[in-house]
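This part of the workshop introduces the protein records we will be handling. A record pairs a protein's sequence with a compact description of its fold. Comparing a sequence with its C-alpha cells is the quickest way to learn the format. The record below serves as our worked example for the rest of this section:
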Amino acid sequence: MKLFARTLRLWEVGRQVASWSLETGQGLREGRHWAPMRAVRTRADLQMSGHCIIAMGRIMRPDDANVAGNVHGGTILKMIEEAGAIISTRHCNSQNGERCVAALARVERTDFLSPMCIGEVAHVSAEITYTSKHSVEVQVHVMSENILTGTKKLTNKATLWYVPLSLKNVDKVLEVPPIVYSRQELEEEGRKRYEAQKLQRMETTWRNGDMVQPVANPEPNTVSYSQSSLIHLVGPSDCTLHGFVHGGVTMKLMDEVAGIVAARHCKTNIVTASVDAINFHDKIRKEMAMSALKPSAASSPSLDA
C-alpha cells in the first residue's frame, strides 16, 4: 500500500512538471529550474494553450558533436524545425476539417549565441506567435542545461514559417485556424513580420547560376580549393507523412557541408555562428539523391496567402 501511494505521488509530481512546461515554456527561456505548475489557468485554458506552446528536450550525445565536443549547428537546427513542425501541425489540426501536415517554408536569420556541448541537455520551446490565412509563424528558443551544475544558458532564437498541406493532396494548402491575441498590438506586429518575409521570399528565385561548378586542380586558399559536396540518399526516416524531406533534415545537411568547407579552409575546428534566412522553394521526394550544394532546399510551396 505504501509503495502504491509513493508511486501515485511521483506520478502526480511528474504530471505537474510536464503540465507546467507545456503551459508556458517560460522557465526554459529564462533559464529557471523545473518547478511544479502553479494553478493560474483553468483546465480549458491549458488545453487551448497546448496547441500554441510546446517544450521538448534531450541530452546531447557524441554523435551530435564535432571532435571538440561542440554540438553541430545542424543538429540544433533539426531540433528547432522538429519542434516547429509539431506545434504547427497540432494547431492546424485543432479544428474539425481536412487533416494536414505543416511544412517548413522559411527560416529567418538565426544566430548561435552560445555553444552546446556533449552531455548537456537541449531544451527547445516553441510558440505560435502569428497566423495568417495560410501560414503559421513559430518562434523557438533553445536552452542548454548542464545537468551536473544546473547552469542554463540561451543558445538559439529562431523564427520559422509553416504552411499546412493536405494529406489527401500535397499541392493543396489549407486554411490555418486563427489564434487569439492578448493584445491588438501583437497581431499588428505579426502582420508586419508576415508582409516583410513574404516580400523577401518573393524576391528570391531559383537560379542555376548560383550553383558552384567544380574546378580541376584548384589553387590553395581559393574558393574552388575548399569547395565540397555532400550527397545524401533520402530515406523514410528523413521524410514527412507526405514522403517529402523534412526541412530540418535539409538544414542539417547544409550545415554539414558548410562545416566541411570552413574546416578545410581554416584547417582547424569550427562551429556554426549564424545562418541567414532560408527559403524552401521545392520538395525533395523519398528515395531521391539530395545534393547539399543546391542553393535552395526542399519542403513546401509558396507562402502566398
Observations:
- The chain has a mean pLDDT of 79.
- The two ends are 59 Å apart (CA to CA).
- Residues 53 and 127 are 4 Å apart (CA to CA).
- The first helix runs from residue 2 to 23.
